[in-house]
Design a protein that fits this description.
about 300 residues; alpha/beta; 5-stranded mixed β-sheet; 14 strands; elongated
């Protein structure tokens, strides 16, 4: 009895989905369009469901086709991992690389780097998903996640790819009108722009002073009339003079440099926000993962402005 899903079907369907049409897939596979159509029809007959919606001009996946594609690419990625773990084609990154990053940072810094990465490694297929809140690390949905701060999960490898600080800042116009805070408690009398992201306690800013055994930390409950879950919007509000903002140095460095924002309470520091590439231990030898993380590390080592150029 012929199995419903055959190994050759997985690669075929991945190519077909990426190509976007039967004719384009035929060109990529080096066969005729009728041959592609016949292969697809046989696949659908074996699984008993339609995988593709076809029209004369367009082709789209059915819900069942989306499920088939997701699992096919995951299986193909596992096969690549096995080959690389056994020392086969270890020097050439290939296969599917699934990347997750936060919305603003991913758009501004990670996406441009991926564009450069795939130009250098055309045999790697990258899927980038941006999310407001990072997905649980226990889910096997991504190969590499870009995170702020090292995750506590010991089953994951967290490689620091760039140092990063969260800084307090405001526009010169706001500070001129409302005064400059001298100590953390002064923030309670200011309009503070809120960002609801991740699992951190909303509206509480933790500021530390001193080093080593002399470090003291104050938790300040802030208030303000503007709140968002998008960091880029919050930065724009600060630029417009609406209040004081706590934001990653990577997101505001250019504004501090050109004077549109001014650092507030520079003698205090916040919890570590260094940028890490996080990936499962079983992926550490995969050529595509190693190449991507090395590429990020080199690019980010050149400073906040480099990735977005």
């Amino acid at each position: 009895m012929t199995p419903a899903i055959q190994p050759a079907d997985l690669g075929f369907f991945s190519v077909l989905a990426s190509a976007g049409s039967l004719s384009a897939a035929a060109r990529e596979l080096g066969v005729t369009t009728p041959a592609v159509s016949k292969h697809l029809a046989l696949m659908e007959a074996r699984v008993g469901v339609a995988l593709v919606n076809r029209t004369t001009r367009r082709m789209g996946l059915t819900p069942e086709g989306e499920v088939y594609l997701e699992h096919a690419r995951r299986i193909l990625g596992d096969i690549d991992d096995m080959a690389q773990l056994l020392g086969v084609s270890r020097s050439t990154p290939t296969g599917l690389l699934r990347v997750n990053a936060t919305l603003g940072f991913g758009r501004s810094h990670v996406a441009p780097l991926i564009s450069r990465f795939v130009r250098k490694h055309p045999q790697v297929e990258v899927q980038l998903q941006l999310s407001v809140n990072p997905p649980p690390l226990t889910e096997d949905a991504f190969d590499v996640c870009i995170r702020f701060g090292a995750p506590p999960d010991s089953r994951m490898i967290a490689r620091q790819i760039a140092p990063n600080r969260r800084l307090l800042c405001a526009s010169p116009a706001y500070l001129s009108k409302h005064g400059i805070p001298k100590v953390p408690n002064d923030l309670t009398r200011h309009n503070c722009i809120g960002i609801r992201q991740g699992e951190e306690a909303y509206g509480v800013w933790r500021l530390s002073h001193g080093r080593g055994k002399t470090v003291s930390t104050e938790a300040v409950k802030t208030r303000g009339n503007l709140t968002t879950n998008d960091g880029e919007i919050a930065v724009n509000w600060a630029l417009d003079g609406h209040g004081i903002l706590m934001r990653a140095e990577w997101d505001i460095e250019r504004y501090l440099r050109n004077g549109r924002l001014v650092q507030v309470l520079p003698q205090y520091f916040t919890p570590d926000a260094s940028i890490h590439a996080v990936y499962p231990q079983r992926h550490q030898l995969a050529a595509r993962v190693r190449a991507f993380v090395d590429f990020l590390s080199l690019a980010f080592s050149q400073g906040p402005q480099s990735p977005s150029r």
